[in-house]
Amino acid sequence: MRRDAIADPWGARTPYGPGQSWPVRVDSQLADGLTEDDVDRWVPTAAVLHSNGDGLELAVKDGRLVGVRGRAEDRVNRGRVDPKDLYGWQANASPDRLTTPLVRRDGRLVEASWDEAMGLVADRSRALLDERGPSSIGFYTSGQLFCEEYYTLAAIAHGAIGTNHLDGNTRLCTATAAAALKETFGCDGQPGSYTDVDHADVIALYGHNVAETQSVLWSRMLDRLAGPNPPSLLCVDPRDTPVARAATVHLAPLPGTNLALMNALLHEIIARDWVDHDYLDRCSVGFDQLAALVADYPPERAAEICRVPAARIREAAALLGGAQRLLSTVLQGFYQSHQATAAAVQVNNINLVRGMLGRPGCGVLQMNGQPTAENTRECGADGDLTGFRNWANDAHVAELADLWNLEVKQIPHYAPPTHAMQIFRYAENGSLRLLWVSATNPAVSLPDLARIRSILSQDRLFLVVQDVFLTETAELADVVLPAAMWGEKTGVFTNADRTVHLSEKAVDPPGQARPDLDIFLDYARRMDFRDRDGQPFPSWHDAETAFEAWKRASAGRPCDYSGLSYGKLRQRAIQWPCDAEHPDGTERLYADGKFFAQPGYCEDYGRDLVTGAPADQNEYRAFNPDGKAMLKAAEYVPPHEMPSAEHPFALITGRTIYQFHTRTKTGRVPQLRDAAPEVWLEMSEQDAKAHDLSEGDLAEITTPRGAVRARVRIRGVRDGVLFLPFHYGYWDTGDQSGRHRAANELTITDWDPVSKQPLFKTAAAAIRRAEGAR
């Protein structure tokens, strides 16, 4: 069904009731003048411009992509297509695609052969390994590659080279999701399923603007709201989003105070005994400590901290406490804010205290921000070890060494794998001399951009960028490697509810562009990496052999893919774990009340939620000897940077439905570009009046780090809060000298102590009319 997805991003309603299957609605979009009869073939894939994992088919005619349609049978979307995907396939044919390698000569990037470019990378790598050792080399990757590519990168970085410095830009969007799941369940992996929307009578969304970040999932929720016996919604968000407007109860706390609010909600639930004591006794540890701490957070105390009426907090608690089937979801409003992991863990705590886990409609989804963020985490390309293994468990490291046929000492495990903010710090101080960036754009997406540009521009840092366009980061590189895009290569990727899709190659990449997997394997061969028997490492040579190797690495771990194959995935998408015991996949984790938390099996021994101090195996075993779910509490502490007389506003950044990440793809698609062409500022009507600003005025927003100019939009954001979308960089401005457009010119170099996720929602800011503007 064709539709104008800019004017109508969520499409027509297909109402349904609790326990019913979500009705099919197939969206499609073809190039002008074409019909489905003109299409040569349809190639299966899944959505790549958000984290929902919608099943799609790409239309091919004369060797070119000419459109897309939803897959009616897909469990995730039942045929619906997000606006970004409906139009985003056009980016593959952009005339400014990178089609040949580039190398820096005399200060300029010039075209080169693959041999020259890869030769430079390999030569510099060998020299650094000889002179400075493995820790002089680091990798920063994406949440948009395929599983096979992440696994290969992890094997090369942690195994062949032996560097600890490998992370993904998932550190910016879902590191807290992983951390919160590990703190509560001992391991990463979403407990819930999207089908819980079909059964829930209460859906609680914490910092999750699902209407814009996962529009198809919002369509599912809207269809439940339009049907009989609709669920109640709780929305926690300082902005008046579409979710907030549909909510039964909307709480709008001041940024940086989420934990205080969550403690108050738990206070009410426990004080009123909306507690499943039998479930807690059987399945959890830590309830007494949790109850003791939240006893000090009555709604009146949280109201003072969060500036939310105490009566509204009680109303929200009653909604949660009265739920028969509670689904809770979490995203960036919690993950990118102060005390991120501590706040996200309290969401888990609410579902556990209520006994709402493992049954239809009862679940937690600590959401992802990118399409393959789950794979980054599973494969060990995000600051963890492959297969959700525990870096502090010697047996897990030895198991990985056996899988790779390497010596144990070759795999660094003296400390946790290095997180992204520390990798850039090592580059800043000169101990890291080669940084390989793949499929991401830190020169726009990381906080405090002036600092990031200075780091990436250092002469002593050899910067390799592997991407599909000449991004702001690529313009600073010493070597640029042209990569194939989605639709131009084959691989699997896994969404936020553990659904695995196979994405088949539909068309050839342009020019000399190569799949990321081929580039990584080419590097490994040029470096002549070998296992302990002298055989080439990694041992695989293409996507399917890489997937088979990954299956072996995942076998027996929570993210078990051993029962999957390309052939099986060509039939339908399947949720992991999928093994001999669960050949059709697993819809919900922990349905049997058993967790991946046993001391010898868990992925992590946990951390103090306030300081981030790690626990060791003995401490973990003493706290949780039987591997139960863990209820963990934390005191609220104020953010490091608070509004002041000079900077009286709290600045938050976020996303819009029409753009993705740094607009590398979506900004090149006419419909999406024109729908949201420029950065804007949202503020409340009262704050606008106080600063003599009107709709459309050009304002200047400042923090101690820099200044951004944006047109004012007066919206329902709470007083004292400013909002900027973070997507907008400089590649399409024609002039990078001003640098007053990217929201991250303003954000702070600070991160959560547990997840190490940067904080994009706690900067203190000032605002005024831009000079000479009205």
UniProtKB/TrEMBL annotation:
InterPro entries with a match to the protein in the record: Asp_de-COase-like_dom_sf (IPR009010), CT_Nitrate-R-NapA-like (IPR041957), MoPterin_dinucl-bd_dom (IPR006657), Mopterin_OxRdtase (IPR006656), Mopterin_OxRdtase_4Fe-4S_dom (IPR006963), Prok_molybdopt-oxidoreductase (IPR050123)
Membrane-crossing segments per the record: none
Stretches for region Disordered: 1-24
Keyword Chloroplast applies: no
Source domain of life: Bacteria
CDD domains referenced in this protein's UniProt entry, alphabetically: MopB_CT_Nitrate-R-NapA-like, MopB_Nitrate-R-NapA-like
Requisite cofactors: Mo-bis(molybdopterin guanine dinucleotide); [4Fe-4S] cluster
Ranges where the 4Fe-4S Mo/W bis-MGD-type domain occurs: 40-96
Keywords of the record: 4Fe-4S, Iron, Iron-sulfur, Metal-binding, Molybdenum, Nitrate assimilation, Oxidoreductase
Family according to the record: Belongs to the prokaryotic molybdopterin-containing oxidoreductase family. NasA/NapA/NarB subfamily.
Protein's recorded name: Molybdopterin-dependent oxidoreductase
Organism: Amycolatopsis tucumanensis
Source species taxonomy: Bacteria, Bacillati, Actinomycetota, Actinomycetes, Pseudonocardiales
